[in-house]
Amino acid sequence: MAGWRSVPICGCRRRRAWLAPAAAFVAGAALTTSVATASDEQASGRQVWAGADVSSHVWLVYSGVTFAPWSAIHDDGFRFRAAAGYGEYEYEKNPSRDPTPDRTLDFHARTYFADFLVGYLKRFGELTAKAFVGASVISHEIKPLDDFTVAMGEEVGIKGVLELWLNIGERGWGSLDMSWSSAHETRAARARLGYRVWPKLSIGLEAGINVDSQGECRMKGIGKSGCRNGYGEYVEPAELLDYARAGAFARYEWGRSELSLGAGVLGDKFARDDEAEIAPYVTINWLTQF
């Protein structure tokens, strides 16, 4: 997430734009299903994944690789990870400092991201923990130029990731992925609770939340953390739930590969008069080791 410096937002409606700035989290979330159980067949030290995330006004595609040079991919030891992705999103807002709602303009943005991380995997009985640290870059190209948005341009930052997997009994499992990056102050978390209805098929529930400098500006207001004084004195209010999602998923394993499909709704209360809105989302992720 690389060097975007901008000014605070005015009163506006930024449709689901939060999803694209959090692309790095989405890519990391694709790995939630990457930790295998102790009964896995001979794991190698290399893992590749790819996925897509689609909602109203936004789409993302991404891929990555994890490499454990001195151990199998699911054994204790150091590992390296690289991931990248590209997406586009649209939103509409008032392009001036005047907060009146009768003037709006459509904006179109292109975004890309890349992560380069080093980490360590450690098992604690039924709990598997992975921690990573490294560099992250994200770029947002917004047309026409949006002078009032905080999340704009390119920024490079430090990134930290923590991923937990817990086997629950013979068939249940849970996962929690959390990440933070100084680039655009991106913070994210996703939790999954799954049950193996068959040995290789799991179904379950998932929930997640993403916040970056743009979202923090809307929640805290001009002059507070996440905002830069400059243009305007009006910020449309937001709550943490505006950046949340919840849904269900299915995960199928075969050999050294797996496929995960998730669907649900994400919060979008960016309408005026605090009218709650929701939008559907669909994610698909494929992973294999070799």
Uncertain stretches of 5 or more adjacent residues:
1-41, 229-233, 270-274
Fraction of residues in H or I helices: under 10%
> Got a strand count?
13
What structural class results from the helix and strand content?
Answer: mainly beta
User: If helices are DSSP runs of H or I spanning 4 or more residues, what is the number of helices?
Assistant: 2
Strand order of the largest sheet: 2-3-4-5-6-7-8-9-10-11-12-13
Name of the CATH architecture:
Beta Barrel
The CATH superfamily turns out to be monomeric porin ompg
Overall spatial form: globular
How would you describe the overall organization of this protein?
- The protein has 290 residues and is mainly β.
- It has a single domain, classed as monomeric porin ompg (Porin, Beta Barrel), CATH 2.40.160.40.
- The chain contains two helices and 13 strands, in the order E-H-E-E-E-E-E-E-E-E-E-H-E-E-E.
- It has helices at 23-29, 213-220; strands at 12-13, 46-55, 58-67, 77-93, 105-124, 127-143, 153-168, 172-181, 186-198, 201-211, 244-254, 257-267, 278-289.
- It is globular, with a radius of gyration of 19 Å.
- The protein starts with 11 loop residues before the first strand and ends with a strand.
- 45% of the residues are buried.
From the structure above, extract its key features.
290 residues; mainly beta; Porin; 12-stranded antiparallel β-barrel; 13 strands; 55% strand; disordered N terminus
